[in-house]
Prior knowledge:
- This protein is α/β, with parallel strands linked by helices.
- The chain has two domains: 70-383, ABC transporter transmembrane region fold; 406-653, Rossmann fold (3-Layer(aba) Sandwich), CATH 3.40.50.300.
- 62% of the residues lie in helices and 9% in strands.
- It is built from 23 helices and twelve strands.
- The strands form three sheets. A six-stranded mixed sheet has the order 6-9-10-3-11-12, sandwiched between helices. Strands 2-1-4-5 form a four-stranded antiparallel sheet, with helices on one face. Strands 7-8 form a two-stranded antiparallel sheet.
- A hairpin with a 2-residue loop joins β11 and β12 (617-622).
- α8 runs antiparallel to α12 (341-371) and α21 packs across α22 (633-641).
Amino acid sequence: MFSVTPGEERQGSYEDEQLTVAHALKRVSAINSRTRPKDKILEQKHRPSLDQRKQLSTKKEKIPVGGLKFSIILQYLQAFGWLWVWLTVVTYLGQNLVSIGQNLWLSAWAKEAKNMNEFTEWKQIRSNKLNIYGLLGLIKGLFVCSGAYVITRGSLAASRTMYVQLLNNVLHLPIQFFETNSTGQIISRFTKDIFIIDMRLHYYLRLWVNCTLDVVGTVLVIVGALPLFILGIIPLVFFYFSIQRYYVASSRQIRRLTGASHSPVISHFSETLSGVSTIRAFGHEQRFIQQYKDVVNENLVCFYNNVISNRWLSVRLEFLGNLIVLFAALLAVLAGNSIDSATVGLSVSYALNITHSLNFWVKKACEIETNAVAVERVCEYENMDKEAPWIMSRRPPLQWPSKGVVEFINYQARYRDDLGLALQDITFQTHGEEKIGIVGRTGAGKSTLSNCLFRIVERAGGKIIIDGIDTSTIGLHDLRGKLNIIPQHPILFSGTLQMNLDPLNKYSDSKLWEVLELCHLKEFVQSLPEKLLHEISEGGENLSMGQRQLVCLARALLRKTKILVLDEATASIDFETDKLVQTTIRKEFSDCTILTIAHRLQSIIDSDRVLVLDSGRIVEFEAPQNLIHQKGLFYEMTTDAGITQDSGTKNKLL
Length: 654
């Protein structure tokens, strides 16, 4: 029967090696069928595997329909600040009242000048009239400057508050959200939607407030001069609001579609960049280029419809505006000599201006409502299910955990409500300072166990107790801050190497060099020009995968805790370095409880006990030498790895 021990090399023709691999796969399949009862095999057919549970299908972004909820507007006003809201209304109302006062003053001045018989008499009162007119202009200028300042301050406060709320909501979302939603949806909210709130919404809001007060003042002036004008303005206002309501319903939904279609553009572009080497290797450049064109075209269709709807609105508003001018002029002619020429000139000039003002007001009102969709999208995450609170009223002691005893009691977990259980009735207890190896086939639930310990995946039943405290009764920060993990996929951030090792700046440089030496990175760091200040690129791309893993190990050595989880921590390291790292871990964490999720069985063969998982259940939990004597699932796994000896003693296994 085919078997290959570690380090053995094989050579041969492609056909021979293909047959050899086929025989090996048949052997593994036969082992799996022997070690799993038939009822469990049938159960697996109806229950998704761990890979299927973890690789959840990406959800399409939901697009709301209908008008904006009042709660969305209220949230923006609260973020704006009620003080700034009232100050905005007062300053803009003041500048429009002063503007109307200026025009009325000019009209009265013209009326007086008409009734004067001599030029000398008009010349005597000119100075006083000009002084008052100039004073009104100065007051208006002060109101304009104050209004611009107040609305800018309020808009900045609203933008800052909504950005902080969005960031806070995203950071509190559970890990399942990020597995089922594309990153483009999140990035789109932090970029385009926040940009609209920062820049466009503030601009349209300022223009709309100004136009609203201007239109109201204009109508009051015309009605005051020509009272019959109110008979024509009522139906025209009805038509204006009908057009606006019809336009907003479509424009708002087009804006939502535009926002939703923008997310796939970002997602596709970022995913293509991250996998560009694979795309080139398989020669699929044209396929991805075409896919990108498709998502961009879909976004442009929404943009084109937005432009067309704006043109539709402009034609109808211009027509209604001209009707207002016509109606005001007809009333002025029909009035004859019943009103003076100065009043007629004032009302007609206002009617000429109202065409532009009304068109501008309706457009800006529609723009505000359509751009308020950005506020709706930013506030969308607020009502989603969040993780447990980071800090709760009950807090563990500062020295907790002091023993490192971990106990699972009838623990169950699932990744999503519509999926089966990933862990079923897990019950075991560790001793203080015990080294536990966790093994199992792919999909057995090894990584799920560590996720549950950190409450990344919440329980569906049972509980986890660490040194007498139920982990579900304390905050996530208190729990995760007392545990330590070296993950399977090393995570580094853009910044200096020192910042990646010690983000909170708690340790001295000598301590950093000490842990680097323990991780066999000291020589490498000393060879760098800037040493500890060496800049790490985003994701640690300028370091090899093994070096990133060692940096994570150094980070764990700095903040030594009583419980350490090794989630296939040495999977990216060569065999020789793996042995050195394992020796360092045994020495430096000798007084800690270590849970090691095995990638190589050699890394857990000297553990105090080994926990064997299969289909989310514990099938074996004993010392490794006892498990080998029992010749169960663990024995077959060690046989496949080629490390089983005739004797089951720990020393000979090593």
